[in-house]
Write a structure and sequence with these properties.
Elements (H helix, E strand, L loop, with lengths): L1 H19 L1 E2 L4 E3 L4 E12 L3 H4 L4 E11 L5 E3 L1 H4 E4 L5 E2 L14 E3 L3 E11 L6 E5 L10 E5 L6 E2 L1
Parallel strand pairs: 1-11, 3-12
Antiparallel strand pairs: 2-3, 3-4, 4-9, 5-8, 6-7, 6-10, 10-11
Length: 158
């Protein structure tokens, strides 16, 4: 009986711990180092490039805002610091083609500076429970993520 109660308490703690690190669109993650990240919006669109059309992949466009209130300049590299995964742990490729005038998130942010921009991923239409994970050198949080949800049920722009 005692072991069962301990197991239940540990299970509840683990569940609460992971859900506490799962942020939603519009929420801001504030880091102790003075950097904050906000997922401003998510939208899905058809891919114009015909090489991907045969896979029926869809673009997942993520609009992010990063504020650097630290005392040092930081560098943002979407390829190295961001990863989109589904509920099964599958990772998806970033879309590296022209995003038709949408600003990239990558670059340097000066101290007391800010930036915003887009990161795009190629995802299948059946992808579920998408989450954007990221890792900055100034913070050792491995499981911080923004919950994006399922592709199905979202309006897909052509």
């Amino acid at each position: 009986m005692y072991k069962r109660i301990v197991f239940i308490i540990i299970s509840i703690f683990i569940t609460l711990s992971f859900s506490a690190l799962d942020f939603k669109v519009g929420e801001t993650i504030h880091y102790a180092g003075g950097v904050s990240v906000t997922l401003k919006s998510v939208r899905f669109a058809m891919i114009d490039n015909t090489s991907f059309a045969e896979n029926n992949y869809i673009l997942c466009l993520l609009n992010l805002y990063i504020e650097n209130n630290s005392s040092d300049e930081i560098t943002v590299s979407s390829m190295l610091q961001f990863e989109l995964k589904d509920k099964y742990g599958n990772s998806y490729n970033q879309y590296l083609y022209n995003l038709k005038g949408l600003k990239s998130l990558d670059g340097k942010i000066p101290k007391k500076g800010e930036t915003n921009g887009f990161v795009a991923y190629e995802v299948p239409p059946e992808a579920q429970d998408l989450r954007l994970f990221f890792d900055f050198d100034f913070q050792n949080i491995e499981d911080t993520s923004f919950f994006i949800g399922d592709v199905a049920g979202n309006r897909i722009k052509k």
